[in-house]
Amino acid sequence: MNEQELRRLLESLQQGEIPVEGALERLRHLPFEDLGFARVDHHRALRHGFPEVIFGRGKTVAEVTAIAERIIDRTANLLITHATLEMFEALSARFDALTHHARARCVTRCTDATDRGRGTILIITAGTADLPVAEEALVTAQIMGNRVELVADVGVAGIHRLLSVREQIAAASVVVAVAGMEGALPSAVGGLASCPVIAVPTSVGYGASFGGVAALLGMLNSCASNVAVVNIDNGFGAGYVAALANRR
Amino acid sequence: MNEQELRRLLESLQQGEIPVEGALERLRHLPFEDLGFARVDHHRALRHGFPEVIFGRGKTVAEVTAIAERIIDRTANLLITHATLEMFEALSARFDALTHHARARCVTRCTDATDRGRGTILIITAGTADLPVAEEALVTAQIMGNRVELVADVGVAGIHRLLSVREQIAAASVVVAVAGMEGALPSAVGGLASCPVIAVPTSVGYGASFGGVAALLGMLNSCASNVAVVNIDNGFGAGYVAALANRR
Amino acid sequence: MNEQELRRLLESLQQGEIPVEGALERLRHLPFEDLGFARVDHHRALRHGFPEVIFGRGKTVAEVTAIAERIIDRTANLLITHATLEMFEALSARFDALTHHARARCVTRCTDATDRGRGTILIITAGTADLPVAEEALVTAQIMGNRVELVADVGVAGIHRLLSVREQIAAASVVVAVAGMEGALPSAVGGLASCPVIAVPTSVGYGASFGGVAALLGMLNSCASNVAVVNIDNGFGAGYVAALANRR
Amino acid sequence: MNEQELRRLLESLQQGEIPVEGALERLRHLPFEDLGFARVDHHRALRHGFPEVIFGRGKTVAEVTAIAERIIDRTANLLITHATLEMFEALSARFDALTHHARARCVTRCTDATDRGRGTILIITAGTADLPVAEEALVTAQIMGNRVELVADVGVAGIHRLLSVREQIAAASVVVAVAGMEGALPSAVGGLASCPVIAVPTSVGYGASFGGVAALLGMLNSCASNVAVVNIDNGFGAGYVAALANRR
Amino acid sequence: MNEQELRRLLESLQQGEIPVEGALERLRHLPFEDLGFARVDHHRALRHGFPEVIFGRGKTVAEVTAIAERIIDRTANLLITHATLEMFEALSARFDALTHHARARCVTRCTDATDRGRGTILIITAGTADLPVAEEALVTAQIMGNRVELVADVGVAGIHRLLSVREQIAAASVVVAVAGMEGALPSAVGGLASCPVIAVPTSVGYGASFGGVAALLGMLNSCASNVAVVNIDNGFGAGYVAALANRR
Amino acid sequence: MNEQELRRLLESLQQGEIPVEGALERLRHLPFEDLGFARVDHHRALRHGFPEVIFGRGKTVAEVTAIAERIIDRTANLLITHATLEMFEALSARFDALTHHARARCVTRCTDATDRGRGTILIITAGTADLPVAEEALVTAQIMGNRVELVADVGVAGIHRLLSVREQIAAASVVVAVAGMEGALPSAVGGLASCPVIAVPTSVGYGASFGGVAALLGMLNSCASNVAVVNIDNGFGAGYVAALANRR
Amino acid sequence: MNEQELRRLLESLQQGEIPVEGALERLRHLPFEDLGFARVDHHRALRHGFPEVIFGRGKTVAEVTAIAERIIDRTANLLITHATLEMFEALSARFDALTHHARARCVTRCTDATDRGRGTILIITAGTADLPVAEEALVTAQIMGNRVELVADVGVAGIHRLLSVREQIAAASVVVAVAGMEGALPSAVGGLASCPVIAVPTSVGYGASFGGVAALLGMLNSCASNVAVVNIDNGFGAGYVAALANRR
Amino acid sequence: MNEQELRRLLESLQQGEIPVEGALERLRHLPFEDLGFARVDHHRALRHGFPEVIFGRGKTVAEVTAIAERIIDRTANLLITHATLEMFEALSARFDALTHHARARCVTRCTDATDRGRGTILIITAGTADLPVAEEALVTAQIMGNRVELVADVGVAGIHRLLSVREQIAAASVVVAVAGMEGALPSAVGGLASCPVIAVPTSVGYGASFGGVAALLGMLNSCASNVAVVNIDNGFGAGYVAALANRR
After folding, report:
1. Contact C194, C224 (CB under 8 A)
2. Helix or strand or coil: residue E235?
3. Residues E177-202, mean pLDDT to the nearest whole number
4. Between β-strands A120-125 and A106-110, what pairing exists: parallel, antiparallel or unpaired?
5. Nearest CB to F14: which of H7, H13, H32?
6. Within an 8 Å CB–CB cutoff, is residue D127 touching chain B?
7. Which residues, including other chains, have CB under 8 Å from residue G27's CB and lie 6 or more apart?
8. Distance between CA atoms of H11 and H62, rounded to whole angstroms?
C-alpha cells in the first residue's frame, strides 16, 4: 500500500464507503512495509545525498545494465563499485557521460556536481599499493558532492613525509586513512587531526599480515581517540561515512 | 625551541651576533618537537574541544590526582575514564563539582557546558547489559559539549522496539550503536539513519561470542554503508569520534 | 498507538471530526511500533508457547524479582536461566510453587502443565560433565509443555552404550545432543535418528578444546545431514528450538 | 548376515541341525552390522522421507552415474548436490525426468511428489548473492516432499523490506534464513517467527568476513532464542533439517 | 541381553518352546548393546591392560570414592588422574595401599605389578616446568605395567644436554616427549629415536605461546617422521598410548 | 672426521707421533658430526627399517632422479611421496621395478618384501574422499615391511558400517584412522581397539572445516585414551609411526 | 626547502635582504619535512649503508625501471627484491653490471663492494625448501657490504648435521636462521651461538603449518634468549637487520 | 666424560695402557655431551657476557635460593627475572649487594660493572603502562655491561613527542621499542634509527588487542626494514638480544 492507496482508503472511510471496522482491519496489518520500502529508497536519496549504489561484483553485465538504467532514469548521479571494464563498455554503449576509474574499479555518471560538504575530505595512504582502495573512497566521496584531496605514500616509517602534509591534515573536515601491513598510519594521523579519522585497513602485505588482519587490529587498537574503522579494503564504506560526516 | 626563541635566534643572526653556520646548525636539528609537543597539547584543546582525558586503569589514585590537578588548573572540564570509586573519593576531597558516573566508570568535572554540537548524538543499545559501555560514550560526548540521547534495549530480535525509535534515529546528527552477542544492531540502525553510525561491539555474550569478537566482526561486515567501528567495549572512543563528527 | 487509539482515530475521521490529511499525517508515521512492541510480546506468548524468559546473569536479585513479579501476574509459567540460589531464595519468599534446578542453574514456576508437544524430546549427553547444559535444555523444554527424556554419558568412544539407547533415539520427535571435547556425539546420533538433531557444544574439555570451539566445529562439520547447532553451552536455546520443532 | 541368513540359522537350530553352542557362537559375534547397514539404509528411507543423496563434489561423472543408477532402480526421487552441468548431461543421456538447477548446482529426479510436510517452509535471504545456497536448501526441501517459498534480498539494513514479508514469516512452519556478511538476518527473522529458524551463514563478503566466519559467529550468538545454525554455505543441510522438522 | 539370556533364548528355540519368528523378532532388535556395554568394559580390561581410569576433575570426593570402590572390588590396579589431596585423604581412610603422586596430581593403587611391556618407555621433558605433565604420563604408563625412565630439562637450546641422553633415547621402546614454549623437543628426539615418539605439548610459556598452541603446532609440523601428538597437557593420554604401543 | 680418521689419530697418539695435547685439541672440538651425520643415516636405516624417503613436492624431476639414484644404489626399497606422474615416467626410463600409486601420489621400488611387523596395521577412513591420504599411509607402511588392511567409508554417522569391521579393529596391531569434516572416527575406533590409534585429519570438508582444522581439533580432544594425532593430510607420517609401533 | 635553500635564506637575513619577520614566517611553517624527507633519504644512505631498495611486487616493469634509473644515477649499489625475470631483462637493456638472483628473486647492481661489516653473517636453513628466503637474506646482506656464509638443510631432526657447523655458528657475528614447518632451528642455533640470531619463519609446510604461522609461533616462543624474529618469508628484512647489527 | 677424563684416556692410550680399539670404542660413543653440557655453560658465560639467568616464575623461593647460591659462588653478576618480593627478601638474608627492581620484577647482584658495549642501548616505550616490560629490558642490558637509556611515553599518536628524542634515537647503537595496543612505535622509530630496532609487543590494551596479539602483528608487519621482534612482554629477551648486538 503506497501513499495514494492509503489516502484513498481514508477518503472512503470519510465518505462512509467503508465502515471503521473494515478500515481498521486493513490498517491493522497495514503493509506499510511495501510503501515503506519504496519510501526508504526515497528517504535514502534525501538523507544520504546519494540514491543507490551498484555493487558490481557477482553481478552479470546485463544485471548491472538493467539496474543502472532504472537509476539513471530517476537520479542525477550513479556509482558502480567493483565494476569491470566490460561493464563500463556495455554501459557506455547505452549511456553518455560515464567515467571509468580503472584503479578504483568504479564507474560513475555525475550530472549533478553540487557541493554538499562543509569542508574538505582528506584521503591519505601509507603506501602506493593502497591506492586502489583510497581511490574508491575518493570516487565515492566526490560523487556524493564533496571536495576531496588525496595524499599518497606517507607511511609512519618516514615520519617527515607525514609531517609535510601536517597542515592539510589539520585543515581537513574528515580524514580517511588507508594502510596495509601494520596499519599504523591512522594513529599518527589521528594525533595531527582535529576531526574524525576513518581508518581503512588494506590487504596489502604478506605473511603475518593475514590479508589485512594485522592492519585491522592495529587500527582498532589505535591510541588516538578519534579513529573509527571500516572493513578491510572497504574504500567505498570509508568514503560514504566520510561524506555523511562532512554533510552540511 | 618556541617561537620567542626562534625569533631571538633570527634576530641574533640579523644583527651579526651569530654566523650563518651557527644558525644553520641550530635550525638543521631544530627541536621544533619540544615546542611542538607543547603546542600539540594546546592544539588538541583548541581542535578537539577537550584538553586531556585521564585513562584511569593502571594508574594509582595518587597519579590520577596529580594529573587531575594539573588539568583542573588549566581547563574547564575534566574526564577520567575507567575510574574507581576510590579515585572519585580521593578527588572529591580536593576538588568540588565532581560527578561520579558509576555504571560508566567515569568521573567528570564540567564547569563549561557550552553546546558545541550541530545536532543531537543518539546512543542506542541492543541490550541492557550494554549500558556501561553506552554510558561511557554518553558521558564523553556530553562533556565535550553535545546534546546526547540514550535509548536502550532495542535489539534486532524485537524489530518493533527498534522501529519505535525510528524518528529519533532519523533526526540524529550522529548515532552510536552499542551491541554485544551478534552485533547486528548497527546494520539495522544504519538503514534507518541519515548520518554516520559509530558501532561499538561489547564483550557481552558467552561461548562463541569470544569476548566481543563475534560482535566486532558483525559490525565490520555490516551491509549498511554508513557504519564505522571502534574497539570492543570502547565507549569512550565512540563518544569522542561522535563528538568530533558533530562539531560545528 | 494501540488498537483503541487507532479505532478512535478512524472513528474521528468517519465522523468528520478530523480531515483526511490529518489522519494521513498521523498514519504515515504511525507508531505501530509501540503497539507492535506490546503485540509482539503477546504474539510471542501465543506463538512460542512461552511468554518471557529471564536471563539471570548480570541482573541483580532485585531486578530479577521485579521482572518475575510482572510475569507471574500475567502468565502461568516462568523460567529464569542462569539463576543463583540467592535469586531462588528471594523469589521463594514472595511466590509459591517455585522450583530450583541446581545443576541447570534454573528457577521455574509451572502452573500450566499442558502437553503442547507432538512427541518426545530426547536429550542425550556424551559425558556426565555435560549435564548442567543438558538439564538447562530439559527444564526449558519441559516448562514449554513437552515430554522430555534425558540419557547421559553415551559418548562415541563407547559405541555400545550409544546403541543401547538406539530405540529411544529412533522414537524421538526431536533430539538434543550435548557434548564437549571432540563433539562427535551428534554425528553418531544423527545417523540413528529420524528427526532433527539440535547439537549443543559444551565448554567441557581442556587444552585444544579451546573452551568448546573444538566441539562447536565438530558439530558444524557433522557428516550427518540432520544436525543443526546452537552456541557453546546454550542449553536454553537448544531446548527452546526443540520445543518449537515439537509443537503440535 | 542378513535377515534371510538369520532366519535360516534359527530354523537350523529349531530343527536340531545345529547345537545351541554353535548358534551361540555365531550369534555372539553376530555381524548384525552388515544386516544393520542394509537396514539402516531402508530405515533412512522410511524415516527421513528420502533415501540417498549424492554429494557430487570430488566424484567423477562415471561414479555419480553408477550411484544414480542404483538409486533410480530402487527409489522414486533422486538428489545430487554440488553437481556439474557435465554430470547432468551424462545422466540425461541415460535417464528421463531429470532437472538441472543451475544456480543451486543440483540435479533432481522427482517421480513422487507426495506432500509430506505439515506446513510451509520459508527460505529467506539477506542478499541476492546468497541465492545459490538458498536454492540448494529449496531444492532439497522440495524433493523431500515439502511446500517451500523463497523470499530474497531482505537484509536487516532495509528493515521495511523484511517487515513486508512479516506475515509469510509468521505463517511458516520452519524458516531457513540465509545470509553472508554480518549474518544478522536470522536474529531479526527469529523475533518475527513462531517456529524454528535454521540459519545458514554464507561465504558472501570480503575482508573480515573471513569466508563466512563473521556470519557464522553472528548466527551462533543470535539474541533470538529460536535459531539453530548449520555449516557455512550448507544449504543442503538446512533444507534437510527443515524438512525433518516439518514432517507430519 | 547378556550371554546367559541369549543361551536361554536359543535353548527355548531348540526345544520348541518358542517359534522361529519369535526368536527372530527378539534377535532382530537384539539389545546386544547392554551386554556389549558390559563386555566392552571387560574387553577393555583384557585388551588395554588396565580396566578403568577415574578422571577426577569435576567430580566430588564422594563420587570419586564410589567409583573407586567398585573398581577396587573388581580389579587389581586403580588410577585416578586430576586427583586432589582431599580425594587422596578420603580414599586412604577406606582403602589401603594408595599412593599420592602430588606433582602428577594422581592417586594410584597398584596390587599387580606384572611387567607387560616389551621394552622401556622413556619420558623426556624440555624444561622443569613440564614435569607435572610428564609425571602424569609416567604414573599412567607404570601402573599399566611398564618400565619407565624419566629425563628432565633437555630442551633444544642446550643440544649437548639432549645428546647426553642419546643412548637412552636410542634404546627406548617408545619415547614420550613433553615440551611447552616452542615445542621443538620431539623433532630433535625424533631424529635420535628408532621408535614412535609421542609428543605432549604443555601450556608452559607466555605471550604468543597461547596456552600451548605454539607447542602443539610445532609438534604437529615436526620434520621428524616418527612423531604423533596428543592434546595440550595430556600426560595421561601420552602414557596410555605409549603403554599400548609397548605391549607385548 | 670419520671413523678411519679417528682410528688414525688414535694410532698416531699410541705410536707417539703426536702428543696428548695435540690429540686432546683435535678431539675437544671433534667434528664427530660429519661422521655422526653419516652414521645417523646408517642408524636410521637399521632402526627405522627404511633408509630414506624422498619428499617430491618442491623438487624438480632431475633432483628427484638424482636422489633416487643414490638410494637405489645403496638400499633395497625406495619411497617417493608427493610424486608426480612426470617423476614416475622419468624414473621408469632409468630404473626397473617401479610402481606408481596414483591416488596416493607415491612412487615405490620394493625389492625387499621382508615382513618386519608384529601384527596387522589397519587403515580405516570415514569417507571415500579421505582415500588419497589413507593410501599414502598404506603405501608407506607396506614398503616398511608390514601387512596392511584398508577399510573405507565407515564414518560415525553410519555406526553399523563401523561395527561391521569391529573384529578387524579388535585384531589390529595398530590402527590408522583417517577422517575429514568433524574427525570423529578415531574416537569411535579408539573405543573398539586394543591398540594405539594414529589419527590423521584430512582437509576434506568446506566452510567451518577450515581446511582440516575442525577434524584436527576433534582428534586432539578425543575422549578415547588411545589416540595420537599427526598433521592434516599427513598420511605418510601416520604410516611411518604405525610401522615403528608395529616393529618386531 | 633543502639545505642550500635554508643557507640562502639565512644569508639573506644576515645581509639584511629580508627582515626577521619574513624569515620567521618562512621558518615557522618551515617545510622541514620536504627537506627532511630528502634528508632522511641521505641519512638513510649514510646510516644504513644502503640508499634505497625497490620492492618489485605490485610494480610494473616501467615503474621499476624509472625508479632504478634515479637510484643508479645517484648511488653505487641497487637492490630490487621480489623482482621478475622480465624486470631483469628490461633493466639489462638499459644498465650494465646487473645480476639476476633467480632463486632469491632479486636483481642487484653492485659497483661498491666495500666491506662494512665487523664479522661474518651466517645464514642457516632447516631445509632446502627454505633456500629462496635464505638467499634473499644473503643477497641483501652482501650488497650492504658484508661477508656472508650460507649453510643449508641442517634441521633439528638431524642434530648431527647441525653440530657439524657448530664452529661456523660460534664464529659468526650475526646468525640468520631460516625455517618452515615447526621452526625449531633458531632455538637450537641460539644455544650454540654467541651473537644475535635473527629468525625467519617460512611458509614451507602444509596442513597445520598455516602458511608459516606454526614456525612463527615456534620462533617467538624460543627458549633461547638470543633470538629475534621477522615476518614470515621476510628474508630481506632479516638480511637488513643482520647487516645493521654487523656494522662497524 | 669431562676434559680430565678425556685427557686421562688419551694418556692411557699414549702409554700403552689401553689399545687403540678400546679408546676408539669409548670415543665412538663419546659422551661429549656431559662434558659438552658443562662446556656449554662456560662457553655461554664467555660468549654471551652473562652466565646464567634464573627465570623466577614457577619456582619456589627455596629453588631460586639454591640456584642463586651456585651462581653467586661462581660468577660476578646475577639476574633473576619474574622475581617476587618474597624471593628478594629470602635472598637478601643470605647474600649482600642485591637490588630489587620492583616494576621490572627483577632481582640483580652486580659485582662486575665492566662496560662491554660499543655504544648506547636506547629503550623507548609508547606508553607508561609499557614500563614494566621496558625496565626488564633495561635491567637485563645493564647487568650484561651496557650503557642504557630509557625514554617513556612517546607513542605515535603524539608524533612531536617522538621527534623530540630523534637525536637519541639516531645516536643509539641498538634501540629496543616497547609498545602495546596497535604496536606502531617500532615502525616510526625504525625510520629514525640507523641501527637494529628490537621490538617488544606488550599485553597492554583491551578488546581486540587480544593480550598483545595486535601489537605483535603490527611489529611483524612493520614497513621499516630494520625491525625484529620478540615474544609478547618479553623484555628480558629484548634486552638480551640488544646486549649481544651491542657487544664489542
Report:
1. no
2. helix
3. 96
4. unpaired
5. H13
6. yes
7. B6, B10, B27, G9
8. 43
**pLDDT above 90 (res C121):** yes
B233 touches chain H (CB under 8 A): yes
The pLDDT assigned to F70 comes to 79
- Going by pLDDT thresholds of 50, 70 and 90, the confidence category of residue A46 is very low
* pLDDT tens readout for residues H67-78: 888 788 777 899
pTM, entire model? 0.86
Contact criterion met (CB below 8 Å) for B154 and B125: yes
H182's grid cell:
596497535
Greatest C-alpha distance within chain B: 79
Asked if B93 has any chain G CB less than 8 Å from its own CB, the reply is no
pLDDT tens-digit series, residues D18-43: 887 777 666 644 433 332 222 223 33
Q: Is the dihedral of CA H112, H114, H118, H124 positive or negative?
A: positive
Measured between alpha carbons, how far is A187 from A193 in angstroms, rounded to an integer?
10
Question: Which H, E and C letters describe chain F, residue by residue?
Answer: CCHHHHHHHHHHHHCCCCCHHHHHHHHHCCCHHHHHHHHHHHHHHHHHCCCCEEECCCCCHHHHHHHHHHHHHHCCEEEEECCCHHHHHHHHCCCCCEEEECCCCEEEEECCCCCCECCEEEEEECCHHHHHHHHHHHHHHHHCCCEEEEECCCCHHHHHHHHCCHHHHHHCCEEEEEECCCCCHHHHHHHHCCCCEEEEECCCCCHHHHHHHHHHHHHHCCCCCCEEECCCCCHHHHHHHHHHHCEC
Give Cα E161 to chain centroid, integer Å: 28
Q: Over pLDDT 90: what percentage of chain B?
A: 58
Q: How far is CA G210 from the centre of its chain?
A: 25
- Closest partner residue to B241 (CB to CB) among A170, A226, A236 is A226
**ipTM of the complex model:** 0.83
Burial C21-39 (b: 16+ CB within 10 A, else e): eebbebbeebbbbbbbbeb
Shortest Cα distance, chain E CAs vs residue C147, angstroms: 25
The answer on pLDDT for F211 being more than 80 is: yes
C-alpha E142/C-alpha A198 separation (Å) is 62
Residue type, D169: I
Joined together, the cell numbers standing for residue B139 give 558521558
Q: What percent of chain F has pLDDT over 70?
A: 86
Q: Which of C130, C175, C203, C223 to mutate to test the interface with F (most CBs of F within 10 A)?
A: C223
Count the neighbouring beta carbons within 10 Å of the beta carbon of residue F60: 12
Contact C167 E29 (CB under 8 A): yes
pLDDT at D245: 96
Which residues share a beta bridge with D198? D176, D228
Pick the closest to residue F38 from F68, F9, F1, F72 (CA basis).
Answer: F1
- The edge-to-edge listing of strands for the beta sheet with D227-229 is C147-151, C120-125, C174-179, C197-201, C227-229, D227-229, D197-201, D174-179, D120-125, D147-151
Window from A62-71, B75-84, C235-244, F25-34 with minimum mean pLDDT: F25-34
User: CA C30, CA A24: separation in Å to the nearest integer?
Assistant: 13
Instruction: Give the Cα-Cα-Cα angle A132, G212, A177 (nearest 5 degrees).
Output: 25
Helices A32-48 and A3-14, packing angle to 10 deg:
130
Sheet with B53-55, edge to edge strand ranges: B53-55, B77-81, B106-110, B98-101
Chains B and E touch (3+ CB pairs under 8 A): no
**What's chain C's length in residues?**
248
* Contact flag B164-C37 (C-beta cutoff 8 Å): yes
Calculate how close chain B gets to H236, using CA atoms only, in Å: 22
Q: Report CB contact under 8 Å: E6, D20.
A: no
Amino acid at C158: G
pLDDT digits (tens, 9 = 90+) for A164-192: 888 899 999 999 999 999 999 999 999 99
**Number of helical (H) and strand (E) elements in chain G, helices listed first:** 11, 9
B221 has a pLDDT exceeding 90: yes
